[in-house]
Design goal:
This protein is α+β, with helices and mostly antiparallel strands and 68 residues long. It has a single domain, classed as Dodecin subunit-like (2-Layer Sandwich), CATH 3.30.1660. Helix content is 47%, strand content 35%. A three-stranded antiparallel sheet has the order 1-3-2, sandwiched between helices. This is DUF1471 domain-containing protein.
Length: 68
C-alpha cells in the first residue's frame, strides 16, 4: 500500500515538473525584474510562476519557473 501511495503521488506531481519552463530576467529593481517574469509567463500561456532565485547587486536577477 505504501508503494502504491508513492506511485500515485509521483504520477500526480510529475506532469507539473515536466512542463515547467525556467526563465531569467534582470532589472534595476526587484519589481521591474518580476514584472518581466510576469510578462513572459503571460506571453508563454503560463497560469502561474514561482520565483526560485533572486540576486541583488548593481542589477537584480530573478529566476522563475513558469507552470502551464
Amino acid at each position: 500500500m505504501k508503494i502504491l501511495n508513492i506511485i500515485v503521488f509521483i504520477s500526480s506531481v510529475m506532469p507539473f515538473c515536466l512542463f515547467a519552463q525556467t526563465v531569467t530576467a534582470t532589472g534595476d529593481t526587484l519589481e521591474h525584474a518580476e514584472s518581466q517574469i510576469r510578462q513572459q509567463a503571460q506571453k508563454d500561456g503560463g497560469k502561474t510562476y514561482k520565483i526560485i532565485e533572486a540576486r541583488m547587486g548593481d542589477k537584480v536577477r530573478v529566476t522563475a519557473e513558469i507552470f502551464p
